[in-house]
Amino acid sequence: MVKIEESWNQHLGAEFDKPYFVNLTKAVREEYRRGACYPPGKLVFNAFNLCPFDEVKVVIIGQDPYHEPGQAMGLSFSVPEGVPMPPSLINIFKEIEADLGKPMPPNGDLTRWAKQGVLLLNATLTVRAHEANSHQQLGWTTFTDAAIKALNDHKNGLVFMLWGGFARGKKYLIDRNRHLVLESVHPSPLSANRGGWFGNHQFSQCNAYLKERGEQEIVW
Prior knowledge:
The protein is an alpha/beta fold. It has helices spanning 6-12, 19-34, 46-50, 87-100, 111-114, 140-154, 164-168, 189-192, 202-212; strands spanning 37-38, 58-62, 118-122, 127-128, 159-163, 180-184.
């Protein structure tokens, strides 16, 4: 039994019996048995458990978890309190400050976003220690694409924030007539410093869209 929040289970439960997911589960268990992997097992579905399907308003898609000790917590871009913020997250907060005048927070734990309806979804939910993208071929993307498709098909008026080429590659799953899609380069210094991240005003655009629809704005 996959332990995942009940409203998500209703939309994704059929995935758990499919051959790809059975093989994925075996492969992930073997990876965790053989050596250090992240996030801790109990946090693999943290994004879903903190942000029930019925409460999702915004989707931010990452690639895979942070791969150094203590960083990954099952939420894209987020690190636990007390862990130094990675450069991408610092750039996210810099843009929020420029866009909304909200000062840099004391830590990089984005749980508070998740609890407001921001699904912080990595396309791949696990990773081997020190090896970025090491679990990308295990089958996670089939599962997380199913999650994006379920949101697209069964909800209206979501905001999808797609940062960088990988996330933008998911836009074929999204109906732009029913949802707002905001695209930009990735906030990592390699991309952001070349232009296209700073000044994109995605956070204020997101809130304006939610407000238009009578939804509570996100306190970024």
